[in-house]
């Protein structure tokens, strides 16, 4: 069972979080979410428990518990939704690059258009 853990103290380490949950059963993995820019914890993470019953016991036992001066929020993690929004956003940024490429392409199309006009004139010579 995948469990969301929020309102964590920023100084809490993955080993500390694992130790909290091991009291309820086998922990498969622990992942604290880290801010890329600061390298600090964002104050939430995920714990993967080996079985659902132990996971539910951990949720019931730890939700609202005070850890490091903070009352933590513990719940079953929701399934990830397809990240169309995030992908769209990144796609939009990439699209900006493509628009830049389109601008260069526009110049080529303009040049191509001139060539076509010359071809048409050349076609006139055949008549």
TrEMBL record:
Chain positions covered by the region annotation Disordered: 62-127
Entry's transmembrane regions: none
Highest taxon above the source species: Bacteria
InterPro entries listed in its UniProt record: Nucleotide-bd_a/b_plait_sf, RBD_domain_sf, RRM2_NsCP33-like, RRM_dom, SLIRP/GR-RBP-like
UniProt cross-references to CDD domains, sorted A to Z: RRM2_NsCP33_like (cd21608)
Keywords: RNA-binding
Molecular function GO labels: RNA binding
Pfam families on file: RRM_1
Name recorded for this polypeptide: RNA-binding protein
Organism expressing this protein natively: Mucilaginibacter aquatilis
Taxonomic placement: Bacteria, Pseudomonadati, Bacteroidota, Sphingobacteriia, Sphingobacteriales
């Amino acid at each position: 069972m995948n469990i969301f853990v929020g309102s964590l103290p920023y100084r809490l380490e993955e080993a500390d979080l694992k130790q909290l949950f091991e009291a309820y059963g086998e922990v498969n993995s622990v992942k604290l979410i880290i801010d890329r820019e600061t390298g600090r914890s964002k104050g939430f993470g995920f714990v993967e428990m080996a079985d659902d019953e132990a996971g539910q016991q951990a949720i019931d036992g730890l939700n609202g518990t005070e850890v490091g001066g903070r009352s933590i929020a513990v719940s079953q993690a929701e399934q990830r939704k397809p990240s169309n929004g995030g992908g769209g956003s990144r796609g939009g940024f990439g699209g900006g690059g493509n628009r830049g490429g389109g601008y260069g392409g526009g110049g080529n199309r303009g040049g191509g258009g001139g060539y076509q006009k010359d071809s048409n004139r050349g076609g006139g010579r055949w008549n």
